Amino acid sequence: MSISSRRNFLCSSAAAPRALQAGQRRPNVVVLLSDDQTYSTVAALGNREIRTPNLDRMVRSGVAFTRAHIMGGIAPAVCVASRAMFLSGQTLFRADERLTAEVTGRGRRGPFHLLPEYFRSQGYKTFGTGKWHNRAPLYARSFSAGGNIFFGGMTDHFKVPLHDFRPDGRYPAAPDRIGSAHSSQLFTDAAVRFIETHTSSDPFLAYVAYAAPHDPRNAPSEAHRAYPPGRIRLPESFLPEHPFDNGELKIRDEMLAPFPRTPEIVRQQISDYYAMVTHMDAQIGRILDTLERTGRAADTIVVFASDNGLAVGRHGLMGKQNLYDHSVRVPLIFSGRGVPKNRRSDSLCYLLDVFPTLCSLCDLPAPPTLEGLSLAPAFTRPDAVLRDSLFLAYRELQRAVTTGDWKFIRYRTSTPGPVQLFHLRKDPYELKNLADTPDGRRRIPEMQKLLERWMKDTGDPVTVL
Q1: Cα 222 to Cα 224: distance, rounded to the nearest angstrom
Q2: How far apart are CA 56 and CA 78, in angstroms?
């Protein structure tokens, strides 16, 4: 099936408004991407415990998508596939396979463009700092400038192995140095320097990929002091243990806390998690302030998102190797030029939609390889229905589909495997499995058919549920 025909199913045909007037200069773009930050960690979007004044500032000045999702992952390091989808605008199985094949020469190659690479080809100065989890050769293709680059997955935030930018694109395995400050500060330092020293008349795209709040959650002490564990509220879906084998109960992420989970342990984990988010938020504030101070704020689009969510004690889980909302839903906020202020949309969307959305806002033709869609119609019509469902997958073990109102999950851990059906509007924390109720049994065939359609259309290697 061609990419264009796949888009008829994956995407809405809603037309996006043109972002530029005749002769108007294209906007700058700043992309801020966090690591392992679940959707419910922004104060302005409903979390009264956490302190995120700068993300709140973006919410007030822009559009927040409250039902943004990742499509899932094909390995325990969900962030690898998630960032591949975010950067390429392609769906799960194609994005990871094509990017891997391009670098290693193994596997099936196929056409793709990377977000910064494409903007670079359209005359943008592209700058990259922070975590790059998709191999050095693809970084070299994407950026014309950079600094404080972390070619890795996880690390001690106070001892990050860093590379300097190399114009020749040849990055050795050994780092140039070990960072002497917290990762969030180091990556922000590099971004601030770039914005302050950018003097070209060409627009720029700055990609700032934080490693927070990924563990180890060692924020500066003042951030930890803001969250006494005893004052942390337990999540609504807290459980001492997951009720059945989901295929990944003993993965590394799940071993970060003992079994069974206790309220005290989970409160401490959430306290540390919030501290990391709040410290990162302060660093994001430095970038927003720099845009204002240099006179670029009015001419810049800022996007904030995260590569995946995290359980942190919900459903008896700690990690992201599952398809519950806490692990597949993420924050997504657009603000700046051409973006309406203080609006929210609950349209179903993916992170892979950011690429085509930025093309629309910058009046660039979307590359034909994109499988995402522009979210720009929802900027002016928050109730716009851009997709009627989303597909979710984790390894060969879990498959799901959500319509926004309902979510259906199938587990391939036994024959037959466990099945879950949640009414998300009535049960947003996914507490009551309705699969064995009369209404659930009537609804499951329809959800099963929708799931199988998504699996076929996205090239899912799993063919039997």
Answers
A1: 5
A2: 27
- Between CA 163 and CA 192 the distance in angstroms is 17
Q: Rounded to whole angstroms, how far apart are CA atoms 360 and 382?
A: 17
Domains 25-384 and 393-457 share a fold: no
Mean per-residue pLDDT pooled into runs of 10, the chain (465 residues): 41 46 85 98 97 98 97 94 94 84 65 94 98 91 97 91 96 95 98 96 96 96 96 97 96 95 98 98 98 97 98 98 98 97 96 98 96 95 90 97 97 93 98 97 97 96 86
Going by their DSSP bridges, the two strands 68-69 and 177-178 should be labelled as: unpaired
First to last CA, the chain: 22
Contacts of residue 439, defined as CB under 8 A and 6 or more positions apart, other chains included, come to: none
Q: Could you tell me if 30 and 302 are in contact, meaning their C-beta atoms sit under 8 angstroms apart?
A: yes
Exposure string of 63-79, with b = 16+ CB inside 10 Å and e = fewer, is: bbbbbbbbbbbbebbbb
Superfamily designation of domain 25-384: Alkaline Phosphatase, subunit A (3.40.720.10)
Element (H, E) at 202: none
The C-alpha angle 79, 82, 85, rounded to 5 degrees, equals 150
Angle, CA of 39, 42 and 48, to the nearest 5°: 115
Distances (CA, A) of 394 to 136, 191, 324: 26, 33, 11
Burial class (CB in 10 A: 0-12, 13-18, 19+), 137: middle
The reply to whether the predicted model has a pTM over 0.85 is yes
Q: Which one, of 140, 179, 132, lies nearest residue 307 by Cα? A: 132
Please state the domain extents for the chain. 25-384, 393-457
Q: Could you give the CA distance from residue 378 to residue 382 in angstroms, rounded to a whole number? A: 5
Integer-rounded Cα radius of gyration of the chain: 21
The CATH number for 393-457, chosen from 3.20.20.10, 3.30.1120.10, 3.40.50.2300, 2.60.40.2950, is 3.30.1120.10
State both tokens at 365. Answer: 């033709």
